[in-house]
Amino acid sequence: MTKSIHIVYSPYHVGERNLRVGGGPDKILSFSIVNELEKLGYFVKIVEIPPVNEYEGEIGKSFEILKRTSVAVHDSISQGAFPLILSGNCMASAGAACGLQEDHLGFIYFDAHDDLDSPDVNVNGYLDAMGLSMLKGESWNAHMSQVPYFKPLEYNKFLYCGLRDVNDVQRVRVTEKNHMDVIWGDKHHKVDYIKLFRKQLQAKDYGPALIHLDLDCLDESYGKVNDFPSPGGLHENELLECIGMIPKYAEPKSLTICSFDPDCGGDGDRIAQIAVNAAKNFFEGLNNRK
């Protein structure tokens, strides 16, 4: 088991540094995540994705960041380090998946949103809602073909936890088209996330797995994590226990923490501390993996 972590530091929102969710990585770093991971016995190195100002528009800049993320993750693996991606945008996980170069990659996604939109169904114009359709080869194919190590992936080992803020078209894409496993959030009834998550991990092996933590998986009672809060999400204790148990049941290959805007009107300090605590629990679990 690796005792080295490379933090792939990507403080961008559609290519703009420190804009909106692009401010999340800096906020999380300011809450001593490096020091906390070093206390667990890890050597931690920060690998920064350089600015992409010379590229054209949010599309050109965003895909250049995906290219660089893929290379950074690939290089981390090659050097025996575990990639922890601190990103503004959640589509960073598409770049990470390319860099992992796993033929049968599984996915464990803590996210209120499905990220499966393609341009023909997307209604809010948010490029960051399309990362998983890009990775599957269903959208933006010309751009994705230029991402190093890209090959379309299937989602037959895919688990969402806390998914809830979806429309009818998105729900069909998740359940009927891709047959993904889901622990649904519910704004009317409290979900026992810990029980259901453990049961799902015991029933199916999702490894080797990319782990994705979009902080809007948290319930909206924690305040605005980004511009898309919703009720029925995970509470802090549930997130910490769930993410901490992953290494016991599935082999993790990377962890992405993303989609946190510390200046959008919520309690940025509280969310940043939750993010750090989640990383600590995850890497403690990784330490204990047999």
UniProtKB/TrEMBL annotation:
Entry annotated with the keyword Transmembrane: no
PROSITE patterns, alphabetized: ARGINASE_2
GO terms under cellular component: cytosol; nucleus
Alphabetical list of InterPro entries matching this protein: Ureohydrolase (IPR006035), Ureohydrolase_dom_sf (IPR023696)
Keywords: Hydrolase, Manganese, Metal-binding
Pfam families per record: Arginase
Keyword Manganese in annotation: yes
SUPFAM superfamilies, A to Z: Arginase/deacetylase (SSF52768)
A GO MF term: manganese ion binding
Family to which this protein belongs: Belongs to the arginase family.
UniProt name for this protein: Arginase
Organism: Maudiozyma exigua (Yeast)
Highest classification ranks of the organism: Eukaryota, Fungi, Dikarya, Ascomycota, Saccharomycotina
